[in-house]
Amino acid sequence: MSRKSKKPLGPNTKLMHAGRNPDAFFGLANLPVGRCSTIMYPSLEAYENPNHKFRYGRTGNPVSEAFELAMAELEGGYNAITGPSGLAAITTAVLAFVKAGDHVLFCDSIYPPTRIFCDNTLTRMGVEVEYYDPLIGKGIEKKIRRNTSLIYMESPGSATFEIQDVPAIASIAKKRGIVTMLDNSWSGGLLFRPIEHGVNIAIQSATKYVGGHSDISLGVAVADTQKNYRTLKRGALHLGTCAAPDELWLALRGLRTMPVRMKQNAQNALKVAQWLEKRPEIKRVYYPALKNDPNHKLWKRDFSGANGLIAILLKEAPKKAVSQFVNNLNLFPIGSSWGGYESLLQPQALENCRSAVPWTERGACLRLQIGLEDPEDLIADLQQAFERFNKYC
């Protein structure tokens, strides 16, 4: 913003203006897309000046600077780095802070590709990975060793949406000099600000709610302090992690509408989740905004709202019945992502990605992204699919 406000701005107002500087671009309301690799210098002295703002497109450019500063403001951090996907932001952040011989703690309910990275790349590098119960809270202290260098959280957890006691874990880690990271994609940085609760690095898949239209691939990691940002940025430079300018520009645009989109996603999801709770075909609905959800109290304490992502555990049924349910949905195509405008469904194979708390449920677990459609239409679609399900039970 070109003019300083006399009083603190609300989060929605900040999102409308973060990363914008119309005065620097002839009054344009939106930053132009800066597609660049080469940056030219007028003289040898200018090239040799270490304080030159931009040196090469991969290491920083006007669009990446604008988005990174906007995300740092949203998350309440110092500055950020961006990458070509959420997973790239995760792996870059982790590799920037760990080394061979370290012991690291990752919550059991992390995003499955993060787990694959841990079980393959980190272990191959000589880093010992241990998974912990996401509901461990203060009990995390018993897991800490002399060589523990990182505690990684994801709250709510992937697929089953466990809410971690982030302040308790971050406080213990800080006393022991351990870096903490948290995958904050579920909240979009709008519903929860982990840095304010003591977390060092807040990570997001900006592919999700920040982008909001299912048409970009982008990740961002925000550091709490200048010192941690320098470590994070150095890691990104060494790994060659960067994001495309078109993706960054679309993400900046997505930020402007994220508050209204997420509010509607949450309203729709709550209606659908409350309806699903009453269905006899379902053993459990996973959605922390529901009063009956075991994570509701902690979610209410730490979060300012919810999103459109829920999961259901069907009662045990033949594979044919589950296939009939999924394949006869008209408004829930099968898709791996979430956070866009449209509804989606993705089957979850949780038995393959839980170890600290093994998955023992026998019914099918399905994740539903509730989009911006009329919730009555989504409910009607689920209703007719349940009728097909029941014919094969």
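Second entry:
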Amino acid sequence: MTGSSTVFPRTSALIEQGMQDGLHHGAQLYVSLEGRVVGDEAYGEERPDHPLNAETILLWMSSVKPLTAVAVMQLVEKKQLDLDAPVADIIPEFAEGGKGAVTIRHILTHTGGFRTADTEWRAESWDEAVQRVCAAPLEKDWAPGEQAGYHVDGSWYILGEIIQRVADQAFADYMRGEVMAPVGMEHAWIGLPDEVIDGSDWKIGRMFVLKQSDLVPHPFANTREARRHVRPAGNGRGPVRELGHFYEDILAGWLRDESTLLSQETIRLMTSRQREGLMDRTFQHKMDWGLGFMPDNKRYGVDTVPYGYGKHSSESAFGHGGAQSSVGMADPEVELVVALAFNGMPGEPRHQKRIRTVMTALYEDLDLV
């Protein structure tokens, strides 16, 4: 274990207990408070007999979604996109299956209603993925914007394709140049380049899933093909501190209009409740949503709401979780940024409890209660 139990004693104890319980082999935790780094920790192993450190490239899963959302809003700020324009204005083939009225805003708030396009992570090219989503039908009796249901991946390929067509640049290149590099995310990617895979295999962390009582390698995430996959919804990879750098920039914009990525007005729009009080049909729980960000949802049940930020986060907190694995968030009320990634996927119930208890403990360790 390379983490510091003296910096975050309650938090570290819970992460270590999770290792003992077989939920994960290791974790990374990055914390800044009032603009000052107070923790950049690594725990456990990248895989058995291989220590995990703060430089290890971990998989963030859906915690990468807000980066894609920020890229979309950059184009909105430049007046190259209209949030309320139909997606089909940019991607005509998307109108298939009754989706002609779906807008960019609907996608960012997960109210588009074409979840049949969501699949398990699999091998397919970018063009194949976009074609698959375009061919998917609108769900029966779905009125876009009026019902809610989280899209795992399909709608985010469409956002990525919009970025490509409007910016006239490959999605991965745009993200590196316009979103990641400006905030110091030098060792993070959405889809790892071949030169990183070939030169850094020893520090690319594996992902594990809990099967019965054993952690076994994820059946796809650790393959070369998966590492290379440009997946806007879920293949962000890097040391988790770099996800923290993203949230530090967004928080600086929220508080003081000092973001390098977006204006304060846009950041506050994205992180505010753009859909409110709707039952999310994917999570089967009432949840509010911003434009690509999850606001704090404790109001709907602190012990039941999926992908929350613990018992002590403020109403203004925002961020996003990654499937059974990670979370990135900022809490403007206390000027807190947290990025946390585990390398074990133990199933939704265990993960929800793990995130909830660790985030609760972290606030207590920082005396933010």
